[in-house]
Amino acid sequence: MKIFIGIVIFIGTFSIMEFMAWFTHKYVMHGFLWSLHQDHHKKDHDSWFERNDAFFIFYAIVSMVCFYLGAETTFWYGWPLGLGILAYGIAYFMVHDIFIHQRFKIFRNANNWYAKGVRRAHKIHHKHLGKKDGECFGMLVVPFKYFKK
User: Fold this and answer.
1) At 50, phi and psi to the nearest 5?
2) How close are the terminal C-alpha atoms of the chain, in Å?
3) Could you say which of 37, 79, 111, 147 is the most buried, measured as most Cβ atoms within 10 Å of its Cβ?
4) If you write DSSP's letter for every residue of 11-35 in order, what string do you get?
C-alpha cells in the first residue's frame, strides 16, 4: 500500500509541477522577478548561462529538501515528492532547454504533433520581448490551438 501511495504522490507532484511552472512563469518570472527572466527573452549577453537559470536552482533546492526529509525523518512522503519535482525538472529541461532552445544540439529532428505544438506555443510566447502581454506560459501542457495545423 505504501508503494501505491508513493506512486500516486509522485504522479500528482509531477502533474502539479506543470501548474507551478505556469504560475511561476506568469506571475513571478513575468512579474516581480522579471529582472532574472528578462535575459531569456532578450538575449543581450554572450554567456551560455542566463540569470533565468536561477529558477531551476530554486526548484532543485525544494526537491533536495524533500529528499532530506524523506531520508532523515519519518516523513517518507518526501521521497515521492522530491522525485516528482526532479522528474518534472528533467522533463522541463529536456523540452525547454534542449528541444526548444537547443542549448545542446540534440532532438533537432523531433517533428511529431506534440513537438510541433509545444514548439509553436513557445515561439508565440517568445514573440513578446517585454514582461507584459505574454501568452502561453505552460511548458508540457499547452492550449490545444497550438496543435492544430
Assistant:
1) -125, 155
2) 45
3) 37
4) HHHHHHHHHHHHHIIIIIIIIITHH
The CA dihedral of 121, 124, 126, 128, to the nearest 10 degrees, is: -150
Largest Cα span, the chain: 52
Inter-residue contact 10 to 132 (CB < 8 Å):
no
Count of CA atoms in the C-beta half-sphere (13 A) of 121: 22
pLDDT bin (cut points 50, 70, 90) of residue 46 is confident
Query: What was the pLDDT predicted at 50?
Result: 82
Quote the pTM value: 0.88
Q: What Cα–Cα distance (Å) separates residue 60 from each residue in 55, 115, 116, 148?
A: 9, 25, 28, 34
The C-alpha cell 515528492 sits at 81
Question: Are 85 and 17 spatial neighbours (Cβ–Cβ below 8 Å)?
Answer: yes
Predicted confidence (pLDDT) per residue in 23-33, tens digit: 999 999 999 99
**Given this model, what pLDDT does residue 10 score?**
98
